[in-house]
Amino acid sequence: MENTTLIAAFLGLLEGLTEFLPVSSTGHLLLAGHFLGFDSKGNTFEVVIQLGAILALTSVYAALVMRLLLRALHDAAARRSILSVILAFLPAVVVGLLAHDFIKTVLFETPKLIAVMLILGGVVLLVIDRIAPAPVHHDALALPLGKSLAIGVCQCLAMVPGVSRSGATIVGALLMGVEKRAAAEFSFLLSLPTMGAAVAYDLYKSRDLLDFGAIWEIAVGFAVAFVTALLVVRWVLSYISRNGYSLFGWWRIIVGTAALVALSFGF
Length: 267
Description:
Blueprint: H1 2-18, H2 25-36, H3 44-71, H4 76-105, H5 111-131, H6 145-155, H7 165-175, H8 180-205, H9 215-243, H10 246-264
Helix pairs in contact: 1-2, 1-3, 1-9, 2-5, 3-8, 3-9, 4-6, 4-8, 5-7, 5-10, 6-7, 7-8, 8-9
């Protein structure tokens, strides 16, 4: 019991720490589960602790979202901001519905692929952090609709575990002239419908396999993920504004390389 509780707390910490950073929380969780021998029937544990991270983000942005919804009744700019996020969300809906089973049964079961994608994504972050065009968009709530849709297409790359949802959207935004902090903030706002829909769909698709027998471990992971994600979301925007994304690029490369070495030794 003690051992499984510690693993649950560690995985919750990992989820909360990485969900909103461009380092791939899914990749980290799948690799950690592989090396720790942790298995959750129907991925119940992983799905529920993601809810903890979503709840943390929702609590941070609840006031902003509520203001937008209220302003939308009489303010065209607010309606346009909401439409921008909806447009960016739609490509993930289409790809997720069409490829869900393949992603879950094939891609999620390939640790070597995850490690390679962590490394490649890290290299991309390092390069883009240096060569991204000068920003022309500084407000996450005022992006052109065409660019919002293009960022949503970039988000679909994150269907491959190890790519990172936030990493794909941030890189796409940077290449389209969105300022670093605004790129991260738009990624956070986009994650609200994307993650919410993904978790709901996962729960529905796996409803016959879900196992809540380990309710204590699930509760521990959920609570740790919520608290950690809350701290990370509040910190990351100010960090990115000052320092950019190179730290996360190196983080990905180190974790991916360590995983490949471990896998090559049969772990």
